[in-house]
């Protein structure tokens, strides 16, 4: 038994060493070798589809899947929302209890809480996990451009008067951006689901290493 333990212990270390961590996106600062500070999505304060205040503290300790849309959009938004709905169903298990979906409107003057709630019902959103957010136009656009590095604004030259990205953003529990995915693509959203599972595994490894006092 001792020989078996000696033989397999290095193999366990090799498996963990080969675990592929997801990349970090956004500006970063290298403080020293092995010490890097990564970009953090800034705090926010909006209103959800029930008219209740919803801030970054509302999703503290959660993994986020984020997008920007508007309810009157007849081009890419219905495809994006349908893909998010399918992702929600795919991740409807206790193992994904820490995953929250955030859809921000870029048309807050039309997309009131009532309008967003009706839209959520139309796409059979699990409103405990999937939040549709509205608020001050300037705050939404600023969070889109400087918080997630996505296009999110009014644009008279754009179809239907608004320009917003089709990307879904994966954000970890420390508010680091860990991935971008085309929200109109079934293949890309499937990759998001795979990466999200990897991220949750990464969180477990970090938690275990912290308990063991590892860096």
Question: Nearest-angstrom radius of gyration?
Answer: 19 Å
CATH class: Alpha Beta
Classification by helices and strands: alpha+beta
The helix count comes to 5
The span between the termini is: 31 Å
- What is the succession of H and E elements? HEEEEEHEHEHEEEEH
Kindly state the percentage of residues in helix.
Answer: 25-40%
Q: What is the mean pLDDT?
A: 89
From the 3D coordinates, which CATH architecture would you assign?
3-Layer(aba) Sandwich
Strand content: 15-25%
User: What's the count of strands?
Assistant: 11
Please, could you describe this protein's structure?
The structure is a single chain. By secondary structure, this protein is α+β, with helices and mostly antiparallel strands. The protein has one domain (37-209): Glutaredoxin. It is 36% helix and 23% strand. The protein has helices at 2-17, 77-90, 113-122, 137-147, 186-211, and strands spanning 28-32, 35-38, 45-47, 53-55, 63-69, 99-105, 130-133, 152-154, 162-164, 167-171, 177-182. Strand 1 (28-32) and strand 2 (35-38) form a beta hairpin. Helix 2 (77-90) crosses helix 5. The radius of gyration is 19 Å and the shape is globular. It starts with a helix and ends with a helix.
């Amino acid at each position: 038994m001792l020989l078996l333990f000696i033989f397999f212990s290095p193999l366990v270390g090799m498996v963990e060493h080969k675990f592929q961590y997801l990349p970090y996106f956004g500006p970063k600062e290298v403080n020293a070798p092995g010490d890097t500070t990564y970009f953090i999505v800034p705090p926010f304060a909006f209103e959800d589809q029930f008219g209740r205040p919803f801030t970054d503290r509302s999703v503290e300790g959660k993994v986020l899947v984020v997008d920007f849309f508007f309810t009157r959009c007849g081009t890419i938004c219905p495809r994006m929302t349908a893909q998010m709905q399918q992702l929600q169903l795919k991740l409807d298990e206790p193992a994904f209890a820490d995953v929250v979906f955030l859809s921000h409107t870029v048309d807050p003057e039309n997309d009131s809480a009532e309008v967003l709630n009706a839209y959520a019902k139309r796409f059979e959103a699990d409103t405990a996990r999937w939040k549709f957010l509205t608020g001050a136009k300037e705050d939404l656009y600023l969070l889109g451009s400087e918080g997630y590095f996505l296009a999110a604004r009014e644009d008279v030259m754009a179809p239907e008067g608004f320009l917003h990205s089709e990307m879904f953003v994966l954000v970890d529990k420390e508010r680091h951006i860990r991935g971008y995915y085309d929200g109109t693509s079934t293949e890309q959203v499937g990759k998001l689901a795979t990466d999200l599972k990897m991220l949750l595994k990464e969180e477990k490894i970090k938690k275990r290493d912290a308990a063991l006092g590892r860096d």
